[in-house]
Specification:
With 198 residues, the chain is mostly beta strands. It folds into 2 domains: 20-102, Elongation Factor Tu (Ef-tu), domain 3 (Beta Barrel), CATH 2.40.30; 112-175, PRC-barrel domain (SH3 type barrels), CATH 2.30.30. Helix content is 10%, strand content 43%. The protein has a 6-stranded antiparallel β-barrel. A hairpin with a 2-residue loop joins strand 5 and strand 6. The longest helix is centred in the last third of the chain and has 7 residues, at 191-197.
């Protein structure tokens, strides 16, 4: 199964250098203890890397430098250099936390992609016929969906390898298996004809 990692950045633009990608790594939770530590609900598979001491992360475009980090079950506890006490930490509750990455960086897992790297890709079938363009990625909890703009309008394609067998970032395309009704209005079965034949 493919995985798209949530990002708040715009897709990269051709010919533009020094482009960064803001990748969501967590949501800041309630304060912990008295020294400005906060819980983090993690959405990154590399928490020790993203929250390494000295790393700079952003909430509402405000930079925060990691002073310390540790895991506690499925969540993390982080202390920021810029946050000195519990009151300041409580003001951060609910803020979305992002890591600002160079656009050339890709996830370690070859089956994972950052949203901006998918947006704008051409959608083709296995023979190369153009079917549309990826306009966004929807994260629905149970699975990710590619929003594809086609000649018939917008369609949502489950981002699973059975329907999207290939993601080719080099050639800026994704290959989709166009089953009936996925990218067009064709019905898989003509029930009227079936009844007449019985």
């Amino acid at each position: 199964m493919w995985t798209s990692l949530t990002s708040t950045a715009e897709p990269p633009r051709a010919g533009v250098t020094d482009v960064t990608v803001d990748v969501v790594v967590g949501t800041l939770g309630r304060a912990h203890a008295l020294l400005g530590e906060v819980f983090v609900d993690l959405v990154t598979d590399s928490p020790q890397r993203r929250f390494a001491r000295g790393s700079v992360l952003y909430a509402d475009n405000r930079p925060f430098t990691v002073e310390s980090f540790r895991l506690q079950g499925p969540r993390g506890i982080v202390r920021w250099r810029e946050i000195a006490d519990r009151s300041a930490a409580e003001a951060l509750v609910g803020k979305v936390l992002v890591a600002r990455l160079d656009d050339s960086e890709t996830p370690a897992d070859q089956d994972e992609f950052y949203d901006p790297h998918l947006v704008g890709l051409r959608v083709v079938d296995s023979t190369g016929n153009e079917l549309g363009t990826v306009t966004r990625v929807d994260h629905l909890g149970f699975q990710d969906m590619l929003a594809v703009e086609t000649s018939s309008g917008e369609r949502l394609v489950p981002f699973v390898s059975a329907l999207v067998p290939e993601v080719d970032l080099v050639n800026q395309r994704v290959v989709v298996t166009p089953i009936p009704g996925l990218l067009d209005d064709d019905a898989a079965v003509d029930s009227g004809d079936s009844e007449e034949q019985q």
